[in-house]
Amino acid sequence: MSRDDLWWHGPFQMFQTNLREIDAGLDVHRVLDYLEEFGAGAWLLSVGGIIANHPSDLEFQTRNPALAERPSGDLVGDAVAAAGERGIRVLARMDFSKVDHRRAERHPEWCFTGADGTQQVYNGLTSVCPNGDYYQRHLFAVVDEVLDRYPVDGFFFNWMSFNEVDYSGVHRGTCHCLPCQRAFAEFAPGVALPTGPDSDTYQVWKRFAAGVLDDLTARVRDHVSRRRPEAPLILGDRADIVFHEANNAVGRTLWHHRTAEHVSAARTFRPHVPVLTNAVGFVDMPYRLAGEDPRHFAQFLVQAISRGANPSTYIMGTPDDVTYECLDVASEITRFHRDNPETYRDLRPAARVVLVRPDPLRRASPRTEEATEEFRGLYTALVEAHVPFDVLPESRIPDVEEQGRLGAYGLIVLPDLGPLAPKAVGVLDRFVSGGGGVLGTGSSGFEGDGSQLEGAPVLRRTAVRDTVESVRSMHLRRPGRDGRGPRGDLPVLGAFHVVEPVADADTDLPVLSRAPYGPPEKCHGHLPLDLHGVLRRAQGRGRLTVMPWTPGRAYRQAGLGGLRDVFVDEVSRTAEGPVRIETDLPEQVEVVLGTSASGGVVHLVNHSGDVPQGFRSPLPVEGRYLRVPWWPEQPSRALRADTALVGDSRVELPRIGLFEVLTA
């Protein structure tokens, strides 16, 4: 079966009913009526695992007692048959993360076991370990029973993880069951099995756990593919469809670009693999009756489709049970995606800048948080400067080179990554020699006192200032433009790496020393130092730029436009060819570039409604222009406004509300 024959390689829209035990008597025709009106052509239905919504004959499955309400006694069979008559696909949601008390008592070897020997019990259900036989063996029997009975159109496995954090947000530590002890000892001989994030060997455990889940995902995918090639597995990187849940959480600081970041990371790594963004209709798990704010939910779906994901909406219970106000805008965006299939068919990233996302498995806390803050600050700066970019996970840099796609980019940005993996170093060296640009901030590419990258403008690193007090009152002086005096000085926040430049390095942003900052009478004495905030050098046919401080973290903390601007200036200077959109759009409108079956695609996402911990209605933007300098043909139509665009070298834009989509 070829790729073109597989339904999920075209654009699709999904709706998930996350069913409770009491919902087994639902009217499948009423649900299907709702899905058709909503704009969804696929139904993600709760099928098995914790509760079987069909008459399972397996000893380790529990039939839902509420199936007795159905004349057939089989919700899955009724749903698949009725959906098939309408051309709606049914995908099976499975949850193998927990078992009931009886099975946990009978099979303790299946269960998550804490370092203190206790099991993890929540709402009467016991968490299961992915290394145990329930996942490793019996899962496949459950899948086979479903495939033997029903022509389902795919599978999704919920919460397939080591359940270190429970539904209350309590960290329960790492699993110490006997299968985990044996497998971890094989993975890391002589390394102590950690108890949790505070253990010195916790990062080793995280890499071990990720490997277990990747292997299990690959085995499940291969099994389903052999049994029913037209049924994809929706899960992680090794699945047919990459899954991302767009959600909110009480108490979690909102990162406004979270959905776009995750979708971009998946699509940049493997643009030929579909992504599904399942947007949660309620505000948090303990508050499943409270619907998400419509303006917040709209950002979930708009960010998803702009980066090439397929949209999905997720509710608790059935459509008759919920009163979520966000469902109207969810339906509007879903129908837009459905009604423009050629625009979204094979929509792939097409920016000229790569922003590398730090790998949490390569560094421990607090370095992970510091690198993430740098990444997010640079992300925001690029959005506001209208520099389109694609996010690439740090560990995937070699993969993109192997796919032959790295040469399409003019710049790779490394946000305070510290020492780089040897394979990544080789890739970056070849990229620069071939004509590309690499821009590193903070600790990126430093190992010990030296730089890992060939031809770097740094001879050696002599010191690291990475505490609050060690950089407090340190400044960078911005030289004036066109012979004018210096512009406003900038604060150094986060970290500064003291480096010695090579002889032919081009340097900029001279450093002013620390000085007293207490009583104003004593606030003087900032001395010019022979240190710089920017070092540049040509290497091969490309360029290397080092900013040995953390402008992203500084921008996140202080919000000074100058911090953003000096970074963006270096982006333009270091990149091979143009990377910035020519436009007078306000900085709150993000420009996302892609290519699809219809040609070049530009998404304009209006972030003017972004507020702390939420989103409000964006302000309309009108009377602006746009030009993509490296595109031979500019967009000619605005899909949301349903109008032709006027202009030759640049196009005049229609009124932009929540978002607009421009096509050739």
Task: Write a compact overview of the structure shown.
This protein has 664 residues and is of the alpha/beta class. The chain is built from 16 helices and 37 strands.
Write out key terms for the chains shown.
664 residues, alpha/beta, nine-stranded mixed β-sheet, eight-stranded parallel β-barrel, 16 helices, 37 strands, globular
Question: How would you describe what is shown here?
Answer:
The chain has 664 residues and is an alpha/beta fold. Strands 16-15-17-18-27-26-25-22-23 form a 9-stranded mixed β-sheet. β1 (14-18), α1 and β2 form a beta-alpha-beta unit. The longest helix has 26 residues, at 202-227. The protein is globular. The two termini are 32 Å apart. The mean pLDDT is 96.
